[in-house]
Amino acid sequence: MGKAIMYNVVSVDGFVADENDQPGPLFDWYFNGDVPLDDNGWMTVSQASYDHTRPYWGQIGTTIVGRHVFDLTNGWDGTPPGGGEHVVVVTHRPAPEDWDPEAPFHFVEGIEAAMAKAQELAGDRVVNVAAGDVGGQVFAAGLIDEVRMDVAPVVLGSGKRFFGSVHAQHLLDGPDVVIQGNRVLHLSYRVRG
């Protein structure tokens, strides 16, 4: 079984989006370099960010997201984002009526069921858990092995928190990885067991 890693871009003050679910300048680092990060060359980053991010994308087998993120992104038009072959959507509702049943998206209720399905689909590869409300629930349940964050030099002041509604203290080890990109700091921490 592969690792479960909670991951997202985050502001210095701990937010993954503003109150209107917009990342604003958090994603600027995806477009401020000269090395193509994605296959179509739309995102261009520094060499350091590429060397850190692209191999991680290659390790992802499955990504877990909440229904809110799925709806905001229109399910990425049925294509899993940033690596991985499958997406598990935590939701109390069924897939949209017009959703392509052949798309590699799986709709499940509850974080435990989502993690079980994601691990089954990922095998020995990484289960990537999107930070935010669902990620925070998975983290609080003790199902996360590692926390990765791309810290952008932005203070949003308020918005959607990286760890969602987690209010209890949790200890992390490290950081094990500290890489400076162009206007982004890539960090990785192991979760204490």
Structural class: alpha/beta
* CATH C-level category: Alpha Beta
- SSE string, helices as H and strands as E: EEEEHEHEEHEHEEEE
Query: How does the overall form come out from the CA principal axes?
Result: globular
CATH-assigned fold name? Dihydrofolate Reductase, subunit A
Give the number of domains: 1
Our Rg estimate from Cα atoms comes to: 16 Å
Biggest sheet: strand arrangement: 7-6-5-8-1-9-12-11
Beta content comes to 25-35%
CATH superfamily heading: Dihydrofolate Reductase, subunit A
What is the averaged pLDDT score?
96
State the CATH architecture: 3-Layer(aba) Sandwich
Number of DSSP-assigned strands: 12
Cα end-to-end separation: 17 Å
Low-confidence stretches: none
Major sheet details: 8 strands, mixed
InterPro entries: DHFR-like_dom_sf, RibDG_C, Riboflavin_Biosynth_HTPR
Pfam families: RibD_C
Protein name: Dihydrofolate reductase family protein
Domain Bacterial bifunctional deaminase-reductase C-terminal: 10-169
Give a written overview of the molecule.
Pfam families: RibD_C (PF01872). This is Dihydrofolate reductase family protein. InterPro entries: DHFR-like_dom_sf, RibDG_C, Riboflavin_Biosynth_HTPR. The protein has about 190 residues and is of the alpha/beta class. It has a single domain (about 5-190), classed as Dihydrofolate Reductase, subunit A (3-Layer(aba) Sandwich). Helix content is about 20%, strand content about 35%. The protein contains four helices and twelve strands. It has helices at about 45-60, 65-70, 110-120, 135-140, and strands at about 5-10, 15, 35, 45, 60-65, 85-90, 105-110, 125-130, 145-150, 160, 170-180, 185-190. The strands form three sheets. Strands 7-6-5-8-1-9-12-11 form an eight-stranded mixed β-sheet, sandwiched between helices. The chain has a two-stranded antiparallel sheet with strand order 2-10. α2 (about 65-70) links the parallel β5 (about 60-65) and β6 (about 85-90). The longest helix has 13 residues, at about 45-60. The radius of gyration is 16 Å and the shape is globular. The two termini are about 15 Å apart.
